[in-house]
Automatic annotation (TrEMBL):
Species in which this protein is naturally found: Zymoseptoria brevis
Domain CN hydrolase: 9-60
Entry EC no(s): 3.5.5.1
Keyword annotations of the record: Hydrolase
Name of this protein: nitrilase
Upper taxonomic lineage: Eukaryota, Fungi, Dikarya, Ascomycota, Pezizomycotina
Molecular function terms from GO: nitrilase activity
PROSITE patterns reported for this sequence: CN_HYDROLASE
Catalysed reactions, semicolon-separated: a nitrile + 2 H2O = a carboxylate + NH4(+)
Family designation: Belongs to the carbon-nitrogen hydrolase superfamily. Nitrilase family.
Amino acid sequence: MSSAPASTVRVAVIQHEPVWLDLEKTVQKTIRIIEEAAQAKAKLVAFPECWIPGYPAWIW
């Protein structure tokens, strides 16, 4: 069995806060961050859980 050549995948792990309680601005911020990660040649961008809703836990 032959082995495939190893490949590298650049991953960007995001540690930012969303724009709390503002979906539109959070989406705009998300796009900017993804664009920056792409310029750094990231192939995968990982955001925190519940990033897009942008609502703090106390609101539920």
